[in-house]
Design goal:
The protein has 422 residues and is an alpha/beta fold. The protein contains 19 helices and 15 strands. Helix 12 packs across helix 19, helix 13 runs antiparallel to helix 14 and helix 16 packs across helix 18.
Amino acid sequence: MLNSLCACCGINRRDFLKLASLFSGSAVLSAAVGGCNSQPTASVGTTAGGQPNTSGGLDQPVKIGYLPILDASPLLIAHAQKLYEAEGLAAEQPVLFRSWAAIVEAFLARQVNVVHLLSPVTVWLRYGRQLPGKIVAWNHTDGSALTVQPEINQVEDLGGQTVAVPFWYSIHNVVLQQLLTQAGLTVVRKAENETIAPNEVNLVVLPPPEMVSALANKSIAGYIVAEPFNAAGETSKAGKVLRFTGDVWRNHACCVVFLHEDDITQRPQWTQGVVNAIVKSQHWMRDHRSEAAQILAKENGSYTPHPEAVLQKVLTGFDSAAYAKQGAIQHPEWAAQRIDFQPFPFPSYTEELVRLLQQTQVEGETAFLKQLNPTEVARDLVDDSFVKQALQQVGGPQAFGIPESLLREETFKAQRSLSFLG
């Protein structure tokens, strides 16, 4: 059965075992194996009866996998607004997962075929585990924060404490380690009973749904994660936002749309339809933030477990002046939203992401990271051809306020500036 799963997922047995070891303790692993081998499927280009498939792949249902974070909202709003159906696609009810391990394993088992993944995870999957998948669009920009105990007022106060990240390969881990290092603190990963020195910050991985309660019971000093878990920490009075990640790395991506490469190459019409729907969803959300919060809220649907008030706080209740006063915003001139939506995957971002990952501590084998060329990764990991076409259907790049050139300069400012032209 394991050999069947490996063949289904396009990775070898050794690499699958490495994947399983990193995701040890994940309850979905056995389900992923069962899902991969649950029933035979037709080969690409033929029907189940062996006849030529003339549908261009449009008969494959859209099976969305997501975590209950606002990064996933364009995929979910597209489902709620029947935008996939408008593109001639059938879309199943999106499946909610509680951890990144679970969603990756389900994607490998092809239980889901359209997922939002942390952008560093896609680097690790393609080059660390040789999984043939690609980024086809961004889900959003910004939308994450470092939330801490109420008595913590600056990054330096985290010395001698434990902070949670959602996954080692996450933009959260990347940004946090830059903030800690530039504050003169040393990043460590220690067992629960080990002593943390005053100049050290111990990092642990927690699924996003567990972070607020961990902060409330003071088992951690803070967490860095996607919304709305920062807003949930604020509204529950468990903590406060110390810094928005979008105030450190301007207009950064966190989650991206990731597809299997064979779907991209052998089902181009299907892929274009998926991307069209997501881009139209993002375009709608920019002008209908309150309505989006209502659709996604637990009171009004089945997409997230979050109260509407928490979602509205993220999508419509951003008091930038108040956050600037408390220090969570240090670059008000950027005029950033708490979370925003635009689909284009700027090459300069991918290049800078690779550079920063090469400086970041993560669990597991990391030798592959040192071998990566940022420019080559930006060309190979991302297929932006579909999103370029989709942009034209909503009025072009200007509809999202991005340059017509589809190039930009990356700005990363914690205590110093890292800038380059993409």
